[in-house]
Amino acid sequence: MMNKSTISISSAGYANCGVLVPSPNFDDRPAHEISLIVIHNISLPPSQYGSNGIIELFTNQLNPDEHPYYAQIHQLQVSSHFLIRRNGHLIQFVSCLQRAWHAGQSNWLGRERCNDFSVGIELEGSDFEAFEPAQYATLKRLVIGLKATYPIADIVGHSDIAPERKTDPGPYFNWLEIEELKTCK
């Protein structure tokens, strides 16, 4: 479990705490400021927690024979900048300075391709149950660190930028937990 200290982001785009598990699923950002945080949920297998499935998916190591659902998704090349586990543990996959592949076809306030200007944060969870207090604590600390480093203008859910395709972070994500962070600089 992480301590309560501030999470800072280095000039290379890495958090000062948590674990780094490099993903090959990223590329260079176009010349855009990082101005958006996109919150997602993920669980692998679906609605099951604590496995290495998410890490294996983001590092192209998911075994299609391990679970029937994995056979459908093992060839995807996706990633996120961060994952916050149920216990609040932080894992980083991609430098914030690189473009992680988390948003897909997306639009925010008329701007297409949100991966170009956003940081993706995955919460281990689903659309069907509440997130843990430890996840919100880490999320708050991470958002504060990101906002201290980049000109973040908005914090949104994946469903906000891809409403025809996505539902996450889902109805159990408590936006009130981070409401004050959406407006503070």
The amount of beta strand, in percent, is 15-25%
What is the CATH architecture term? 3-Layer(aba) Sandwich
**CATH H-level homologous superfamily name:** Peptidoglycan recognition protein-like
SS summary, helix count: 5
Would you count the extended β strands for me? 10
Distance between the terminal alpha carbons, to the nearest Å? Answer: 27 Å
Chain-averaged pLDDT:
95
Structural class: alpha/beta
For the largest sheet, list the strands in their spatial order: 1-5-4-9-3-10
Order of helices and strands: EEEHHEEEEEEHEHH
Number of domains: 1
- CATH topology name, in short, is Lysozyme-like
Radius of gyration: 15 Å
Mind explaining what this structure looks like?
This protein has 185 residues and is an alpha/beta fold. It has a single domain (19-183), classed as Lysozyme-like (3-Layer(aba) Sandwich), CATH 3.40.80. The chain has 5 helices and 10 strands, in the order βββααββββββαβαα. The mean pLDDT is 95.
